[in-house]
DNA sequence: CGTATGCTTGATCAATTTCAAATATCGTGG
DNA sequence: CCACGATATTTGAAATTGATCAAGCATACG
């Protein structure tokens, strides 16, 4: 469990800026030439308060981002999945600990190299900005979920938004993979584990979802979930909205 | 009450990029040459969903930033005071409505001009980044407050963090100016107005604060408030921490 | 100086947490 | 492949917190 910058910094990496930063204008490009690091379950990528030296791209797996409060409570700020980035929107130090939920493969790149590369190349900057703004928008959605919604609304939101993020192949019925534990979900939604369980059980009883093992839930009535979730997730869930059996409430 | 982009765009402004953007490397500089616009109480600077065309700097006054949910609930995302900026961390459209709490004087500048100017000048970019990252950090603190803290903890946090932000001239006892209504505070903290009142009354009863009119509260026992607020606000409140009568809990 | 609005307080109610067991699932070793 | 133990999840009942409903009170403004 003790680990900060886990894997060796991969001594001599082939990638070179070579004096012409615009060669490396694309973020994915720069990352692609970095070696893939592997982390086991429960290892930390970095700890809250560490100097924010790197930016990470998750190749595969799931991470939880959290802070521990003085009295031991754990607040999960968010989760990150394969294809997503980590460590983008922070200043000098990381504002949270990033820990693996599943085995994770990721690439890292020095933050200084990123910002250095933006000077000449205006190709990179919009990409970075877009991601930072999306993180901001996600944080604001989270604020609304935590500040205004009740337990059932929060869980419905959670299911819907994770269905949108983690692919699910556009199949029907939609299946959501939830690699994290119920306690993770509770700490993310500002509820207790018992409340999360009760809500899931209720949704199941009412035929809205069908849990399949611990880490997979089939969404059987997306329309009802969307209705419960409120009008959040407008943009993100539009593709899911098209999959509803009957038109959602806001379609009038 | 009807108003989106209120004041005339101040037709021909003297300020020119003049082909050498680095001339205008400093954000405050660029803003300083913009005309000051004035808004009355209750007017909107922009509405949620408006195209994010401008960035604003508040010269004086207070704004509330909020979203209205489908069922009419209002979630206040944050407040902005004189000296702070607005409309920085958003992509294509504003993610919230910005409405004046008091009379407000502000300056605006086209977002396209800002980003255009960053291409050549690396003086501007760090300033923008720092502000965006600070917004992000504030959002994450808000997430923790809403997700993990009880009513008293939330109000204590609110008082402490606003004492830090709105000057208070480093005088003792510290006075906090709260231009917003109790309902605003409630919608910001995810509580009801009654709960906010009760908590304030309790703090008063216990001698931790001394309300002075509706919009001013004197913090009499900052140490106790800090203790209640938990270990959040570490960085921001360090200057306040020095003003405590007795050493705070975490000073052991 | 009166009225509208915002604030405060009290009593009751509902939602969520807490405490306490059961039950299910997963990984492992036989 | 199955049994077992550890861990995660689910369920129930009681306690708590905060919301809701309902008045009173204070303040600011015309």
UniProtKB/TrEMBL annotation, chains A, B:
A cellular-component GO term for this protein: cytosol
UniProt keyword annotations, A-Z: DNA-binding, Nitrogen fixation, Transcription, Transcription regulation
Gene3D superfamilies: Jelly Rolls, Winged helix-like DNA-binding domain superfamily/Winged helix DNA-binding domain
Domain HTH crp-type residue range list: 149-223
Matching PANTHER family: CRP FAMILY TRANSCRIPTIONAL REGULATORY PROTEIN (PTHR24567), FUMARATE AND NITRATE REDUCTION REGULATORY PROTEIN (PTHR24567:SF75)
Entries under SUPFAM superfamilies matching the protein: cAMP-binding domain-like (SSF51206), Winged helix' DNA-binding domain (SSF46785)
Lineage: Bacteria, Pseudomonadati, Pseudomonadota, Alphaproteobacteria, Hyphomicrobiales
Ranges where the Cyclic nucleotide-binding domain occurs: 42-87
Protein name: CRP/FNR family transcriptional regulator
CDD domains for this protein: CAP_ED, HTH_CRP
Keyword presence, Transcription: yes
An annotated Gene Ontology molecular function: DNA-binding transcription factor activity
């Amino acid at each position: 469990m003790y680990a900060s910058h886990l894997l060796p910094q991969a001594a001599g990496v082939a990638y070179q800026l070579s004096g012409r930063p615009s060669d490396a204008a694309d973020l994915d490009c720069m990352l692609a030439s970095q070696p893939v690091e592997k982390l086991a379950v429960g290892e930390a990528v970095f700890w809250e308060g560490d100097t924010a030296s790197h930016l990470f791209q998750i190749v595969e797996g799931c991470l939880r981002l959290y802070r521990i409060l003085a009295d031991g409570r754990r607040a999960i700020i968010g989760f990150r999945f394969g294809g997503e980035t980590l460590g983008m929107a922070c200043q000098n130090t990381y504002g949270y600990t990033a820990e693996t939920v599943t085995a994770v493969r990721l690439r890292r790149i020095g933050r200084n190299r990123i910002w250095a590369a933006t000077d000449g190349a205006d190709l990179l900057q919009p990409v970075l900005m877009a991601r930072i703004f999306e993180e901001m928008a996600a944080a604001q959605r989270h604020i609304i979920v935590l500040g205004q919604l009740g337990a059932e609304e929060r869980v419905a939101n959670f299911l819907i938004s994770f269905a949108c993020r983690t692919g699910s192949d556009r199949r029907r019925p939609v299946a959501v993979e939830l690699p994290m534990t119920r306690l993770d979900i509770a700490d993310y939604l500002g509820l207790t584990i018992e409340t999360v369980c009760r809500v899931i059980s209720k949704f199941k009883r009412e035929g809205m979802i069908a849990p399949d093992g611990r880490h997979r839930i089939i969404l059987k009535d997306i329309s009802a979930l969307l209705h419960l979730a409120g009008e959040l997730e407008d943009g993100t869930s539009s593709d899911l909205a098209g999959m509803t059996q009957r038109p959602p409430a806001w379609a009038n």
